Amino acid sequence: GENVEQHPSTLSVQEGDSAVIKCTYSDSASNYFPWYKQELGKRPQLIIDIRSNVGEKKDQRIAVTLNKTAKHFSLHITETQPEDSAVYFCPYNNNDMRFGAGTRLTVKP
Amino acid sequence: DVKVTQSSRYLVKRTGEKVFLECVQDMDHENMFWYRQDPGLGLRLIYFSYDVKMKEKGDIPEGYSVSREKKERFSLILESASTNQTSMYLCASKVAIQGTGELFFGEGSRLTVL
Question: Distance from B107 to chain A by nearest Cα, in Å?
Fold first, then answer.
């Protein structure tokens, strides 16, 4: 079945540094790759997504890149700020919307 | 804006009670989902529904059932609540385009079973 690995499980960076979270997937037919952010005490929300016909998409300080050959997509956050501290999720099954444990990002001021 | 509303933010129930968690969305979404979220375990899919009266098991359906009698409403039922079902429950919905589309979440229902 479809499977995605998300790394790292936890990430701690200094404010202003960059953060990268990576998801690998196994289903070659996957064509949509979203990232969700869940701040403490709040609901998860979509922050950025990319389709398989695009290699990179940027939205201010966040970007998602897709490497179809290696079957992975990554979330990049530049100039991190304390408000970026959250758990970030990529779904390992885009049809059934199944998620894993996510990545807990902590940005230290 | 899409709105996904969960009827109860906090519930306290006793072991053995039947519990209903209600979720309503106002954007005519075909697909609806129930997750539970526990510390360190992320979002685990309990059940989902592609359309009215349809339901599919997720990764952890044991001890739960669901009802989708109307398109906008998806109910999660705990037939006999147990303490290990103490958790945060999140409902979500999306359009029915397979493999794409934003998932919209409700605010969650925190259930405590004593």
Answer: 5
Whether A1 shows a pLDDT value over 60: the answer reads no
Q: Work out how many CB contacts closer than 8 A connect A with B.
A: 56
> Encoding tokens for residue B24?
């309503």
Provide CB contacts within 8 A for A72, sequence distance 6+. A22, A23, A24, A25, A66
Contact criterion met (CB < 8 Å) for B42 and A98: no
Average pLDDT over residues A17-29: 89
For A40, the 3-state DSSP assignment is: coil
Kindly report the nearest CA distance between residue A49 and chain B, in angstroms.
Answer: 9
Band of the pLDDT at A4, cuts 50, 70, 90?
low
Residue in A46, A51, A100 closest to B102 by CB: A46
Confidence band for B22, pLDDT divided at 50, 70 and 90:
very high
